[in-house]
Amino acid sequence: MMGHEVATEVLVSGAGPVGLALGNRLAAAGVDHVLIDRAESGANTSRAAVVHARTLEVLDELGVTSALLARGVVVPRFTVRDGDRVLLAVDFDGLPTAYPYTLMVPQDVTEEVLEGALKERGGAVLRGQSLEGFAVDDDGRVRADVRGPDGMWTVVADHLVGADGMHSRVRELSGIGFAGSSYAQSFVLADVEMDWPLPEHEVQLFFSPAGLVVVAPLPGGHHRVVATVDDAPEHPDPDDVAALLRARGPAGAGPVRSVAWSSRFRVHHRLAESYRRGPVFLAGDAAHVHSPAGGQGMNTGIQDAVDLGGRLAAVHADAADPTILEGYDRVRRPVARQVVALTDRMTRAATLSGAPARARNLVLRGLGALPPVRHAAAMNLSELSTRPGPTSP
After folding, report:
1. Percent of the chain's residues with pLDDT above 70
2. What is the distance between the alpha carbons of residues 331 and 276, in angstroms, rounded to a whole number?
């Protein structure tokens, strides 16, 4: 492939859930595209495991929701707790959607389902291919240099989409700023087998002065544990996870028998100054990153991809006015700004202690007694509140 030049309508860099969702949307509309990814293979760990109601709606447009439901765990409730006390209970079962719940399904399964659907549509992921650089020609087309196992080659595209994560090469090369900062603490992720005294049909967020911890059921009898830690081990073991749960979770949290997968990572809260620069677009973590407290990162990114994919399909397949692309930043960037702010507040509120923590608990319990507050919380967590209106551009 060395020296080869390929012309296409859309070049997508990054084949995680966001890039795969975008590829599916383009393929379904018959838009010629090239989807590249630096990695030699797709995800083989659970990583992002929460799929919210709004994301299930947009994935239904791609025809993959039923396959995900068959392999995930339906969770109709989210609770905020301080030890054994429930401060706020958010039920999803009354939401105005065909999917009134959260679905817990490992990211590698989500990617497998999306990539399988893409292949059925005649698409493919070109793996082991990294974007080295690009320039915008005088005619507004992107000329991108790609390095693969056989050397350098060139893609000439009408549009380039960076779905290549927080350290996005596309964003860097385009010069789009990424304002924000990082949390001082690191985050631990672990998928474990353990005895758990609380209901299995909930995602549970625990407040503690030592840091937050989230526990949720996964397929196969496992639980996902997410926690903030000042200095986390690279690969937390059963004793590490058990200590976190004893310190921050409910009384009677049983022993952690095994860890199927674990990791640590630093979390930033950042938002791209723009989602577009000329023929270049950003989606997913390339455009926004934030605390995993609400499990909304991958969800917001997939929704970015389907929105942008629909606009690109309208232009390339239906000859729509290209000004429709201007609506992508206008519609999707405020959604991410809201998610970044919400998850930041949740993360900071979780670690209060003393009098501020007592005040927080009183306020949450009082607000939680009000049905409109619980409904609003359910709409925000499920991201149904971000549905575009009938007149959205």
Report:
1. 97
2. 12
Q: Residue 259: which domain range?
A: 185-264
pLDDT, mean of residues 221-232: 88
CATH of the domain at 137: 3.50.50.60
241: CB partners within 8 A, 6+ apart: 188, 190, 192, 194, 225, 256, 259, 262
Q: Is residue 378 domain-resident?
A: no
What is the per-residue pLDDT for 1?
44
Pair (246, 110) in one structural domain: no
Cβ 219 vs Cβ 104: under 8 Å:
yes
Distance CA 194, CA 254 (A): 6
Are the C-beta atoms of 271 and 287 separated by less than 8 Å?
yes
Number of domains in the chain: 2
Could you tell me the two tokens for 94?
Answer: 């009354």
C-alpha span between 204 and 151 (Å, rounded)? 48
In the numeric block, the tokens 């990054």 are attached to 14
What lies within 8 Å, CB to CB, of 144 at 6+ separation is 11, 131, 133, 134, 154, 155, 156, 157, 160
pLDDT confidence of residue 391? 45
Task: Specify which residues 142 forms β-bridges with.
Answer: 136, 157
The angle, 0 to 180 degrees and rounded to 10, between the axes of the packed helices 326-350 and 297-318 is 180
CA distances in angstroms from 320 to 26, 272, 275, 311, listed in the order given = 15, 27, 20, 9
Per-residue model confidence as pLDDT tens digits over 9-31: 999 999 999 999 999 999 999 99
Task: Give residue 95's pLDDT band: very low, low, confident or very high (50, 70, 90).
Answer: very high
Handedness of CA 288, 289, 294, 297 (dihedral sign): positive
Residue 13 and residue 43 in one domain:
yes
Asked if 135 and 189 sit in the same domain, the reply is: no
Displacement of CA 172 from its chain's centroid (Å): 20
Residue 32: phi and psi, rounded to 5, are: -70, 125
Q: Cα(365)–Cα(89) distance, rounded to whole angstroms?
A: 9
Q: Is the same domain home to 232 and 341?
A: no
Concatenated DSSP letters of 70-95:
TTSEEE-EEEEEETTEEEEEEE-TTS
Q: Answer yes or no: do 17 and 155 share one domain.
A: yes
Instruction: List pLDDT tens digits, range 117-151.
Output: 999 999 999 999 999 999 999 999 999 999 999 89
